Amino acid sequence: MFGFMVRRLLVAIPTVFLIITLAFFLMRSAPGSPFDLERPIPEAIKVRLAEKFHLDKPIAVQFGYYLKDLSRGDLGPSMKYKDKTVGNIIAEGFPVSATLGLSAMGLAVLIGSLLGGFAALKQNQAGDYAVMGIAMTGISIPPFVTGPVLALVFGLYLGWLPTAGLDRGQLTFTHLLLPVITLALPQIAIISRLMRASMIETLRSNYIRTAYAKGLPGYAVIVRHALRAAVLPLISYLGPATAALLTGSIVVEQIFALPGIGRQFVMGALQRDYTVVMGVVILYATLIIILNLIADLLYGVLDPKVRYD
Amino acid sequence: MGSASHNARTEALMEKTIEQANVKGRSLWDDARARLMRNRAAVASMVVLSVITLLAIAGPWVWPHEYDHVYKSKVGIAPTLEQLFIFGTDSQGRDLFVRLLFGLRVSLAVGVIATFVSLVIGVIWGATAGYIGGKVDEFMMRIVDTLYAMPFIFFVIILMVVFKDFTTGKPALNILLIFVAIGAVEWLTMARIVRGQTIALKRKEFIEAAEAAGVRPFTIIRRHIVPNVLGPVVVYVTLTIPSVILAESFLSFLGLGVQEPLTSLGKLISNGAQDMETMPWTLLFPAVAMMVTLFCFNFIGDGLRDAIDPKDR
């Protein structure tokens, strides 16, 4: 298993390098520069700024500078915020995005697998149809519809929850509730469908019949034998789910005005803040790779048929 | 001479066989179609989707209002039968109904074309890798794995930003870019599915027979592999279209999708979300239209999967 991990991490290095290269050259080929402000600054200052950030050098040289800084763990200064480095910006935004994403993921896995398991046990009965109807609705409504509607109903009409932002810079339960639900809904739907399908297949297998035949009570069969096998497909879905949550969190941060890194990324891209965009892309690529690796390892632990060596 | 009459006899025999086949034979596809037609949700979805598509294509031509005409004295009026503003007008005084039809047209077109792009790339890539196998397969699928690890939406965003100024004022180019950006992202799963199917097919007798008869590899892929992987591919296509429509609306929501005065479902919803406190109908109608469309595609996709792969029923 250790060898497997090392091999996977070694493969990840060229992947990350490719991502960095692609993002760097794509971003630089965008017209405009970070110093095109609404209130134009004098040409002389622009030149000095460009010099400071090496923007006056050929692009290959700039790439060299960037890699050199990166190898020391330095993501560079932001080109828009004078007093902030990319590291600062990520350090401020990441906790918000991570809390949002993890809570949504937790909620989605918990509710999704419960609903899916329930539907499987009631296959082709009213309960099953109800759950699958809800799931289909969840998949068909995008978060940028549920978000504003939830904010309108619970924030404005009922006045129970705040509609946007943080509580004096602090993440609180009430401020997180609506964004987390918005983000989790589509994932709840997908996970419950996956769980239902795999649970139905598991319930039909021979060893479940054996378990029943040797007289185990129903809940023991389901909890100890069926569930363990049925969650496996869910684990391999965790990788794509993470990617989906990252994407969704860009929208949710926008709707609820949360200062996460998804928002920083979109703003950075629009304002040509090259270093911020690069920093966020690198962070997310690394995250996805690590989470995929964890999912694979978990799979190996839970599924005795899979062994990594 | 003898051979001519022999040929004639063979032909007669073949015709007879074909005739018998026509009478008796029920191919897997016939079974699948029968199963699909028994699925009421799927059939209803197909009907609804046909109506929506027809409305989206023909509606804007027939409807008395133009999608980009601004009625300065009719800003933000609620749905009314007067002057046929049946869905009301938006915050700029444009007829919402015709804009909705137009947005549907754009969203459906993006969904279908981007899916088609991903289909072509994915099927060629997956079938080639799976059929050739060995080192080539490993290399090609390693590329897919690498791309999978990319935070793709970020690249799409960067792409859209990069080309935004370039495409301003050229709506056709802008939409083309959306097709390409999304299509280029969606082909990966398709390639994986097709590869898996191809590897399973490769060991079947009819492929071996074709190989023994000296058919060239690419002809085998084209004539024998691709038609036989069509089942799972069709299912995946129906499920990809809604996810592409979602991806486009996601870009539009961030202001990176189609540009005014053109519109799409995502753009309409994003505008509606801004005005929802004073003009709730500007959010309601586009949101419902999107839901219904995605519902239909998802139901059809599920129905097709059950029909083609009856194992899960």
CATH architecture of chain A: Orthogonal Bundle
Q: Taking Cα atoms only, what radius of gyration of chain B do you get, to the nearest Å?
A: 25 Å
| Number of domain units of chain A | 1
Number of helices of chain B: 11
The CATH class assignment of chain A is: Mainly Alpha
CA(first)-CA(last) distance of chain A: 6 Å
Q: Which fold does the CATH topology of chain A refer to? A: MetI-like fold
Q: What order do the helices and strands of chain A follow?
A: HHHHHHHHHHHH
- What general form of chain B does the structure show? globular
Q: Helix amount of chain B, in percent?
A: over 70%
Q: So, the CATH homologous superfamily of chain A?
A: MetI-like
- The percentage helix of chain A is over 70%
Order of helices and strands of chain B: HHHHHHHHHHH
Low-confidence stretches of chain B: none
Offer a quick outline of the entry.
Chain A is 75% helix and 0% strand. Chain A has helices spanning 2-28, 43-52, 59-71, 86-121, 126-140, 143-157, 173-203, 206-213, 218-230, 232-255, 261-270, 274-302. The longest helix of chain A is centred in the middle third of the chain and has 36 residues, at 86-121.
